[in-house]
Specification:
Pfam families: ROK. It comes from Pedobacter kyonggii. Belongs to the ROK (NagC/XylR) family. By secondary structure, the protein is an alpha/beta fold. Helices cover about 35% and strands about 25% of the residues. It is built from 9 helices and 15 strands.
Length: about 290
């Protein structure tokens, strides 16, 4: 019996990454990762040709058997039909209302039923549930913390975009308080000094009390954001990814203490698969044994 391989594809506004995933061992196939920059402002033809080129290169060593592709794609997008609905985000304008699934099927000579799409935030979490930090957990919340706030829910082992970035929070929306720009703005308010991002704050957190205060405040705010979501969906694990996750040790004590103070013992874990999570999550959409 041939090994169950699928290609995981992660598409962003400036790149495409693809890698073969062994669905049996739930791991990336060694040395199979292919990457390429792609200008999302280009024409339909240029974008789709670039995507197909990388997908074909990634499949190069698979000679036999059906080719299955799972693609993690930003929204808005009709994931079941494979139609792009992105129009006001300064990317992929040329793909608006194009059936990307059918276009790729024709160009790659792969049946449409072998091409699957998943939201990129959901793909990250699906990967962690399939093979990473949340493996075996049924009710999971995934957060990608960085320049923006990505969020996804996995209920009964199926991940979907939670779209929480613009939910009402404090004096604005969640993304105002749970992204890199908040760190930069808040540190400047407290210290009068400017930093480029969270990495610089991590470097001085042991010696600068303003940086310490910023991380403590972030941990508290994150807890306040999480409490109603955890209670509503009975979340047993929260997976944190994105660039801000690299500073987890700086804000985790306040986050966990605040959650415990509100009677919540949900596990808070860092992404294990990191940049490979969406690739593995997308490929897992091709695993027909998954329910």
């Amino acid at each position: 019996m041939e090994k169950p391989f699928a290609l995981g594809v992660d598409i962003g506004g400036s790149h495409i990454t693809a890698a073969l995933v062994d669905l049996e061992t739930r791991t990336l196939v060694k040395d199979s990762i292919k990457r390429s920059p792609v200008n999302s402002q280009e024409s339909k033809e240029v974008i789709l040709s670039a995507w197909c080129d990388i997908i074909n290169k990634a499949f190069k060593n698979i000679k036999n058997g059906a080719r299955n592709v799972g693609i993690a794609m930003p929204g808005p997008f009709n994931y079941s039909e494979g139609i792009s609905l992105i129009k006001d985000q300064d990317k992929f304008k040329s793909l608006y209302q194009i059936n990307v699934k059918e276009e790729l099927s024709k160009r790659l000579d792969i049946p449409t039923e072998n091409i699957h799409f998943i939201n990129d935030a959901a793909g990250f979490l699906q990967g962690e549930v399939f093979a990473g930090a949340a493996k075996g957990n049924a009710s999971v919340l995934g957060l990608t913390l960085g320049t923006g706030l990505g969020s996804s829910l996995c209920l009964d082992y199926k991940a979907f975009d939670a779209d929480l970035w613009n939910s009402e929070f404090l004096d604005g929306i969640a993304e105002d308080y749970l992204s890199t720009r908040w760190f930069v703005k808040r540190f400047n308010q407290l210290s009068g000094k400017a930093v480029a991002g969270v990495k610089e704050l991590v470097e001085i957190v042991e010696t600068d009390h303003h940086a310490t205060m910023v991380f403590m405040e972030f941990g508290y705010n994150l807890a306040q954001f999480l409490i109603p979501i955890i209670k509503k969906h009975k979340i047993d694990t929260v997976i944190v990814g994105g660039n801000i996750a690299q500073s987890f040790s700086a804000f985790a004590p306040e986050l966990i203490a605040t959650l415990k103070g509100n009677g919540i013992d949900t596990d808070i874990k860092i992404s294990e698969l990191k940049e490979h999570a969406a690739l593995i999550g997308a490929a897992s959409c091709c695993d027909l044994s998954l329910t």
